[in-house]
Amino acid sequence: MKSNVTWGFRLALLATALASVVVVLGAFTRLVDAGLGCPDWPGCYGHLTWPTTEEHVATAEALFPETPVEHDKTWPEMVHRHFAGLLGLLILGLTIFTWRRAAQTGQPLPKGHTLGLLILVIIQAAFGMWTVTLKLWPQVVTAHLLGGFATLSLLWLLAQRLGPWQWISQQTGKIRALKPLVLLALVLVVLQIALGGWTSSNYAALACTDFPTCHGKWWPEMDVARGFNFAQTIGPNYLGGLLEGEARTAIHMAHRLGAIVVTLAVLLLVVRLFGIRCARHMAGTLLAVLALQVSLGITNVMAHLPLAVAVTHNAVGALLLLTLVTLTHRVFTAQST
To answer: What's the pTM value of the predicted model, to 2 decimals?
Structure first.
């Protein structure tokens, strides 16, 4: 019985690691403007990989005359798709394994959890296709990003549920009292990730290039209505974005303000955690990840969005989310000694 759970735990950890790679590759693909590196789906100019020889490139450009082959954009897109496909197969295997083991052993394994993951990854595949066919429509790009973070979070939560991690403490009263604050911090981080996705998909990361002001003002001219118009027309090619400066400034400033709210909520949580003996290591980890994420966000603005920093900012955002998922699980499953 224990070995069954152990194998499920190992598969969940493997899937989490692979999902982390997919999230980082997705960020890289988006930031190098390779989201439309392949104009078709699921292949690339009709290839399982991407056209490389002169003959294949000529054939591809004859089929898609409006989108000439750009090798620096085809390979990031297809590498991302291949890793995402591999993750989907691994989640399918994890789901089958969990349901079979539950039927064979009668263990209360998280069948619903794995089935939900499988459904989510299928939906993710659809959003991956729509990202291409709808030409980077911001709503779809943002939803696709959120789906990737959700997949990663649910895989890590599954590993938490199957793993040996649990707080057993004499301070369970203090731990359980953290539930509202932990959930608040988790929701705020998810909303901030959504704002980050909206900022990226509308190419608003460099709408402000100074810090802490924007265009030399604490409150610059902004067009909030256009910046957050979620009924944008489907049809144009959104590569590079279509919004005017003031609309992008509104998106950028919303992301900055969101960062302030998240920072305050997480800092309050850190202070509360330091008062609980078994949670102090988690408090230190959360504080370090938050500080790193804020530093990367500021660096993105001041250094004009260097690729390595921007990709790392996405990765650390995922790490912050996973830290809060871990904390949420520990708080809700804590037991008395």
So the answer is: 0.94
Residues 178-197 have a mean pLDDT of 97
Q: Which residues are tagged catalytic? A: 77
Q: What angle do CA 154, 193, 210 make, to 5 degrees?
A: 155
Residue 337 above 60 pLDDT? yes
Cβ proximity of 321 and 190 under 8 Å: yes
Residue 329 token pair: 């699980």
DSSP letter (8 states) at residue 203: T
Q: Are 213 and 298 in contact (CB under 8 A)?
A: no
Listing DSSP states for 232-272 in one string gives PPSSS--TT----HHHHHHHHHHHHHHHHHHHHHHHHHHHH
Q: What is the mean pLDDT of residues 88-97?
A: 95
- The per-residue pLDDT for 5 is 59
For 275-296, the pLDDT digits (tens) are 999 999 999 999 999 999 999 9
Query: 280-302 and 245-274 helices cross at what angle (nearest 10)?
Result: 160
Give the CB-side neighbour count of residue 24, counting CA atoms within 13 A: 12
Give me 271's structure tokens.
């202070």
Contacting residues for 44 by C-beta, under 8 A, at least 6 apart: 37, 38, 50, 51, 74, 77, 78
What is each CA distance from 336 to 23, 160, 176, 331, in whole angstroms?
37, 19, 11, 12
Q: What is the DSSP letter of 282?
A: H
Helix (H) or strand (E) holding 335: strand 335-336
Give all strands (DSSP E) within 86-158, no chain letters: none
